[in-house]
Amino acid sequence: MRILHLSDTHLYGDPAARHYDRIDTAEALRGLLARLEGLEGIDAVVHTGDASEDGSAESYRLLHEILDPFAAQLGAALVVTMGNHDVSAVYAETVAPGERLPERQDRVVELPGGGRVVVLDSSVPGAGYGHLEKAQREWLAGVLATPAPGGTVLAIHHPPLVAATALLRGLDLDGLDELAAVLAGSDVRIVLSGHYHHEMTGQIAGIPVHVAPGVTNVVDPIGAGRSEQALALSGLSLVEVGEGAPRVVSSVFTSAGDVLGDAEQPVYRFTPEQVEQIIAAAGR
């Protein structure tokens, strides 16, 4: 399996809206994809959540207006995961109007060659942190009870890793031990996530975890110290799953949607006090 891994596009229904009054998120996505003209041999384009910033039907229509033809040109499946800024029910009604889909967007996408992507919806309405219900873990265990011939990739917005910054630790995924118990001994080859907006790697139950850099901005997990900051950059990853350990490479570019055009100027910089306020409002 060759997977193009995108995350955190934060699209708006209002075309005039700018992320932090700075980033045209639709142009950031379009500009990033325009850099990939030579890309080929992709089986799936996997978006690991926060597709939308405002959870509007218009933002999801825009997402598919951009990504559907891009994936079709590659001959790849498009897989979209729900994040904390997304509204699962609105997405379901937008992409499959009239169908009775589950409240949470958990599903399996079969790929040519016998591989599959299993999608888990870790979003919690009105919150920034991630959570999986017991029923979701039981569903996942049932799916993984039958291995896929080409292996399984798990896509979940909130990474099953301890975050690198205080803000993200306050908005992380709970129940890691319970999830690890389900994944142990399964055919999951790699877990793909977003949410943190910066590249990160780790493991859960001995399985590699990869966090893709954000499309709308890239967080600086080291240089901000006790503060939290993001830069006007856009990134994505290429994941290859075959014999041996999965191979992952990432690229980060200056954002095509930056209205200031100054990648050295942070998109935002939160003080430690502001970080505490955000955690109090959106954290567990």
Topology pattern, helix = H, strand = E: EHEHEHEEHEHHEEEEEEEEH
Strand content: 15-25%
- What is the tally of helical segments? 7
Which class best fits the helix and strand makeup? alpha/beta
CATH class category: Alpha Beta
Q: Note the overall shape.
A: globular
Rounded Rg: 18 Å
The fourth-level CATH homologous superfamily is Metallo-dependent phosphatases
How would you characterize this protein structure?
This protein has seven helices and 14 strands. With 284 residues, it is α/β, with parallel strands linked by helices. The strands form three sheets. The protein has a six-stranded mixed sheet with strand order 4-5-6-7-9-8. Helix 2 (57-74) packs across helix 3 and helix 4 runs parallel beside helix 6. The relative contact order is 0.18.
